[in-house]
Design goal:
Elements (H helix, E strand, L loop, with lengths): L1 E2 L10 H11 L10 H20 L7 E4 L2 H15 L6 E5 L4 H12 L4 E4 L9 H7 L4 E5 L13 H10 L3 E5 L11 H4 L3 E5 L10 E5 L24 H39 L3 E3 L10 E6 L4 H10 L2 E2 L15 H5 L4 H4 L2 E5 L6 H20 L5
Parallel strand pairs: 1-11, 3-4, 3-5, 5-6, 6-7
Antiparallel strand pairs: 2-8, 7-8, 9-10, 10-12
Helix pairs in contact: 1-8, 2-8, 3-4, 8-12, 9-12
């Protein structure tokens, strides 16, 4: 199998696997004061310190969640509920992950004023357009660090500064950036930042939310855990695996990013040389080193994915959470692609297990499959 869908989920790193196994043997509740509880608390505190160190934060600023979706929901709902002084409006970009954009639209139906800032053909946000969308009524502005479908990197520091100039908080979905870009919450100037372990070699079901100093959040549900910001007994094995994987991902990031960038360029160059009418989406903007969004004109993406799967190649037609949807990618439509172009687009995403040999194998297998799918489309 050629696994080229790391933006959906990554294989678990050995270090994370071992950390999960060790944590499973620590059965105490971290909130208990007895010996078993203190052992669990020690592990939890160590993991929190490791995550904080990786994100340029303090341990008290890290809230453990079940993943990126819960972290985003906590940031959006929590910040809006806690907002004061007539601030009710939410500002987001048009290419946010569905966990942010869908929730934003739900909040709008519930009465929250919403402004969606468009992007250009490269999937990039114009800081001036973002600044123009802000106002004294904005409670929270949101922009992802890097897009999950195209890999386009947004100017988050500049966008966060614009939000702060208007007195608004700023939330950053950094789920796809961990292990691929340098990531420091303070350097970025964000108030809230979300990550999830499954994107960088950790276990699924474990994520974290950075909550900056002075940021008020209303919790999604009751409970005193996580300093009252996230109720429920902490997922100790998941947290242990998350922190172990994050430590490795941060340490290996420079070398891995350089290697994956070369492999991605080889994949794109080889496919464009072997297949006519292939376009790289977001190719003119800064991108993650591992992500490639390619439009194969005249080839239905769903049919192509099925053909690839039969050949043992795993890829995606967009966000993993939209798998099976017949709707074209909202990200690609926001970038100006037509519905037909969006339905002819695949995402290939590389990761820590990807090898040069796999890329060469992909370049051998994919071109004839694209030709076969194109030939199967009836004329007219």
């Amino acid at each position: 199998m050629l696994y080229l869908d790391h933006n959906a989920i990554t294989p678990v790193r050995p270090e994370a696997f071992a950390a999960v196994e060790r944590a499973l043997g620590i059965f105490g509740n971290p909130s208990s004061v007895h010996t078993a509880g203190r052992a669990a608390r020690d592990l939890l505190d160590g993991a929190r310190a490791e995550v904080a160190r990786a994100l340029g934060a303090r341990p008290a600023e890290i809230v453990f969640t079940s993943g990126g979706t819960e972290a985003a929901a906590t940031a959006l709902r929590g910040a809006l509920l806690a907002a004061e002084g007539g601030r009710r409006r939410l500002v987001v970009t048009s290419i946010e992950h569905p966990c942010v954009l869908s929730l934003s639209r739900l909040l709008a139906r519930e009465g929250t004023p919403l402004t969606v800032v468009p992007v250009d053909r490269q999937g990039q946000v114009d800081p001036e357009a973002f600044r123009a969308a802000l106002g004294e009524d904005v409670a929270l502005a949101c922009a992802m660090r890097a897009n999950n479908e195209t890999g386009v990197v947004l100017p988050v520091r500049e966008l966060a500064l614009a939000a702060h100039e208007k007195g608004a908080l700023f939330f950053c979905d950094a789920v796809q950036a961990v292990g691929k870009l340098s990531l420091d919450a303070r350097e970025l100037g964000v108030d809230l930042l979300a990550i999830t372990g499954q994107k960088f070699g950790g276990p699924r079901g474990a994520g974290a939310l950075f909550v900056g100093p002075g940021v008020k959040l209303s919790p999604l549900f009751g409970g005193e855990q996580e300093r009252g910001r996230r109720g429920g007994t902490e997922n100790l094995p998941g947290v242990a695996g998350l922190s172990a994987a994050l430590s490795v991902a941060v340490r290996e990031r420079p070398a891995l990013a350089e290697r994956l960038s070369a492999l991605r360029d080889r994949l794109e160059g080889g496919l464009r040389a072997a297949i006519p009418d292939v376009r790289v989406n977001g190719g003119g903007a800064p991108r993650l080193p591992n992500t490639s969004s390619l439009t194969f004109a005249g080839a239905d993406a769903e049919a192509l994915l099925m053909a690839l799967d039969l050949e043992g190649i795993c890829a995606s037609a967009g966000a993993a959470c939209h798998s099976g949807s017949t709707s074209p990618s909202g990200v690609l439509l926001a970038m100006g692609l037509s519905p037909a172009e969006a339905r002819s687009t695949l995402r290939f995403s590389l990761g820590w297990t990807t090898t040069a040999l796999e890329i060469e194998e992909a370049l051998t297998r994919i071109p004839p499959l694209v030709a076969r799918v194109r030939e199967a489309i009836p004329e007219g």
